[in-house]
Design goal:
Blueprint (H helix, E strand, L loop, with lengths): L10 H5 L8 E2 L2 H10 L3 E6 L4 H11 L2 H10 L1 E6 L4 H15 L6 E5 L5 E5 L13 H14 L1 H21 L9 H19 L16 H14 L4 H19 L13 E2 L7 E2 L2 E2 H18 L2 H17 L10 E2 L2 E5 L5 E6 L7 H8 L3 H8 L29 H7 L4 H19 L7 E2 L2 E2 H18 L2 H17 L1 E2 L4 E2 L2 E3 L2 E2 L6 H18 L2 H18 L32 H15 L9 H11 L1 H6 L5 H11 L4 E5 L5 H12 L6 E5 L3 H9 L1 H4 L8 E4 L8 E3 L5 H6 L6
Parallel strand pairs: 1-3, 2-3, 18-19
Antiparallel strand pairs: 2-4, 4-5, 6-7, 8-9, 9-12, 10-11, 13-16, 14-15, 16-17, 18-20, 20-21
Helix pairs in contact: 4-6, 6-7, 8-24, 9-10, 9-11, 9-24, 10-11, 11-12, 11-17, 12-17, 13-14, 15-16, 17-18, 17-19, 17-25, 18-19, 19-20, 19-21, 21-22, 21-24, 22-24
Amino acid sequence: MPNALDRETSPYLLQHADNPVDWMPWGDAAFERARREDKPIFLSIGYSTCHWCHVMAHESFESDATAALLNEHFISIKVDREERPDVDRVYMAYVQTMTGHGGWPLSAWLTPDLKPFYGGTYYPPEDRHGRAGFPTVLRAIARGWREERVKLVAEGERALGLLRARAEGAGRAETSEPLVEAAGRAFEEGFRHYHESFDARNGGFGGAPKFPRASNLAFLLRVVALQGAASELGAEAMRLATSTLRAMARGGIHDQVGGGFHRYSVDEGWLVPHFEKMLYDQAQIAVNCLEARQATGDERYAWLARDILGYVSRDLAAPGGGFFTAEDADSPVADSTGAITGHAEGAFYVWTPAELRTALADDAEFAAWHFGVEEQGNVPAQLDPQGELRGRNILVQRRGLAETARQFGLDPEAANDRLLSVVERLRSARARRPRPHLDDKVLTSCNALMISAFARAYRVLGDAEYLATATAAADFIARELHDGNRGVLFRSWRQGVRALTEGFAEDYAFLIQALLDLHEASFEVRWLQWAVWLQAKMDELFWDEAAGGYFNSPGWDTSIVIRLKEDYDGAEPAPSSVAALNLLRLGAWFEADSGGRSYRERGRRVLEAFRDTWSRAPQAMPQMLCALELALEPARHVVIAGDPRAEDFQALARVVGAKFGPYRAVAAADGGEGQAWLAARAPWMSKVRRYLSPRLVMPSNTLLPPLECWRGTNPIQADIWRPSSN
């Protein structure tokens, strides 16, 4: 008989709807039941594509015996961390504080008034290797609740006090040091950290496991922009960033057949990934590649960006314009008749030599040479503790194209054509396998990151389809996930139904960023207008007037026992890091919002609120370091005067987009309603007249002289002409 989760929309909660555990969703009904029955709460947090969440579900939550323990002694609550990041952050902070580590599934035990008193992550189904199994833990906590409740309640109070003290002191630094000096030192120490932790052999930073933490590469590319690629520091930052991207592209973390990137690599050499694919990773790595293309002119990074965007467009596109959230690490395993015989991590992606020969015939040897396929499999046993990859191969670019061409007596162009044919045939063969589970909810925050990626891809690569995709996704959010009457965003949508949970700080921050990027790609003023309105709503809901910065959650939800401010740029950047960048970008356009509050001053307040974190451990907040530099630079504007629909205007815009300039605002002076709206709020814009032929205009507050420049309509001409004054 289904439990209470069968009425939910979350794919993760629905995965547990048929468990014998009497699960309840997070909410008042569960809290009231815990108080009424005088039972502690067992809180389990995960997400639908999480491998170890599946493992614990199969081992423990599908067990009748374990379910009986849970049902007798606890009120069990399931939470999808992607739908309720506010709940996840509170109890993840507790578990990390108490145990020194975290992860999913997150397991926490709470008093009926939601104070945590015990927690961990994955628990095995029985005692093993000196570690208590899940039933043992359940019995011990149940006994403690009966016999030593006072101690457990006191522990909950103590834990909450620790979290509150941490939250109230987070980021604050008692110092009179000027921001410019603190920022300069943080930049230097941040760069030194990446330089010293760089893996010169494999690329990336540190040892195993290795994550594609996109904020790291974004920071390094800002160093390039500030120092210049020709400087010693700029050249080194470029080397760290680009060699990491190339190493990731060659490795198993990159899906060589279907495109896109897996979540992380379990080894230092990027060979064996954790196979889930997350939308937020695709978006951020694509932006890394686009910026590398701008900074270097190297077409390899453009190819990699197209590879990622192609995967997203093909496999993660939702009806109506949005994007789905993720694909699972685990895949069904089918026998020769097509019958499903089980599940295994990575089953969809790996190959035996026999499968390669069946799919490719005479080209199998060519593919095996290039992609490092071995008869016995290419995954070392120590990297396959479950034995799921034994005898199988993860495709990696073991050899470069030139080496493969020499091996088979081909010229590089012929080898490339052959390789493209091999990849296409492997993709067709793989399409006949059962696909991994698709998490088909649409999250505002992740979609916003993807809008930024497609909008910026249009600016850098000039493919009009990218702009159309970004526009459709933004329209989807406006239509399905935004309440125009109240001005609020919602967190998620699935199969035509918008979830009731309203958006969090990350949803607002990431969408404002996306709208600024989309405006600079399309020059449609409606996106800039929406960004301004959303920034006002974000300030209303999440701003900490006392200490600065943005809380992760709004203040009206009493089930959130403590409001936290994220101070770590992890798999996704912290909301305050992105918000600081947004405020400073808006400050390049407008001096103040409709209430007279300076955007730049508010952005600087965000930076000051987190000064202790970024000055003490700059590598924790590389995205905020990017904002720091923007705060200390004067606003830079580039205005293209003309009709944005005209081909010569668009050609000139492509020239601008191809240049790496992360600290500039790009606008169009078209003489229409959009320019009028801007001119009423940005006085500098009112001085720009529309020209019959497109020109780039640099206002007087830029680092360049106050002049018109690049007057030609031919993009080549525009690129090489030097500025000339009026």
